[in-house]
Amino acid sequence: MDVYFLLLPDVHLLDMAGPVQAIHECNELHGGFFRPRFVGLGASVNCWQGPAIGNVEPLPETVTADSLIFVCGMKLTPQVMAAARDSRLTDWLNRADRLGATLVGICTGTFVLGEAGLLDDRQCTTHHRLLQALNEAFPKARVTRERIFVEDGNLLTSAGVTAGIDLTLYLIARLRGCRVAIDTARELVVHNRRMGEDPQISEHLRHHNHVSPLIHEVQDHMVRAFREPLTVSGLAAAHRVSTRHLQRLFKASTGISIKGYLTALRLEKARELLADGRDSIELVAEKSGFQSTRAFREAWMRKYDTAPSLLRGHPREQEGRRPDAP
């Protein structure tokens, strides 16, 4: 299968290298199923971080319907936007779309797809800092917030930087099977493999946008010890404040209660374990810090309104597995 990595001027290193490395490791572990090719409008491109990349192929005349085309993220400079509007590129992307090739926008690569007119009435996303700009630039697009990546037919778009790795692993799972994707993730030392419905900002970071040193310390304590039977009184004693003062300051600083934050951390860990698919529901509950399987199921249902068993091993990936995949 041909995998094209479209490189435009000022490409971001990790927006390119993350997906490239995931594809490479999959080939190393499970045979050369993917054929990576680096294409663009010129024979070389400069990365925004400094290095130059050479041996860039011209855009091929045609692509096949089973091709993958990664539009790698780049700095949104005037030079880049001029390149994104180049008719050679927009025509090529439209031809690929009409053929049914899979188009993958990594971070600001979504803007390039938009310039080609491929976002109209389609769900899409980008880096959380650029969501408003994406919405303003392409008002016909259905911009989705709070998602690591979004799939709409043959169009997939992701948030920036490491989210490109998550999206590539998702595609590997769909094309080669869940076990191959898990093997690839482990080779990449990606312990917490995120899925499309996951938020772009983790629970740990989401509630850290405040200036209270005490509450930062308490949050770090909870992140380290969320598997333990933590209590509000125990946390207050450990940090030498009254229980009432800690509860009031924590809620004022983070916008969430101590119990709510602890449950969110535990559910985030549970999602990771369920996605891996190796542990039973009972063991997931234990490893995530819940006192019982029942408490875990109730917390999960309150947040996601579905049974945790539906996420184990991502059955939707298993359904898309190739019959000849190992």
UniProtKB/TrEMBL annotation:
Transmembrane segments: none annotated. Residues 216-314 form the HTH araC/xylS-type domain. Keywords: Transcription, Transcription regulation. GO terms for molecular function: DNA-binding transcription factor activity; sequence-specific DNA binding. PROSITE patterns: HTH_ARAC_FAMILY_2 (PS01124). InterPro entries: Class_I_gatase-like, DJ-1/PfpI, Homeodomain-like_sf, HTH_AraC, INH-QAR. The keyword Transcription applies. Signal peptide: none annotated. This is Transcriptional regulator, AraC family with amidase-like domain. It comes from Marinobacter daqiaonensis. The lineage of its organism: Bacteria, Pseudomonadati, Pseudomonadota, Gammaproteobacteria, Pseudomonadales.
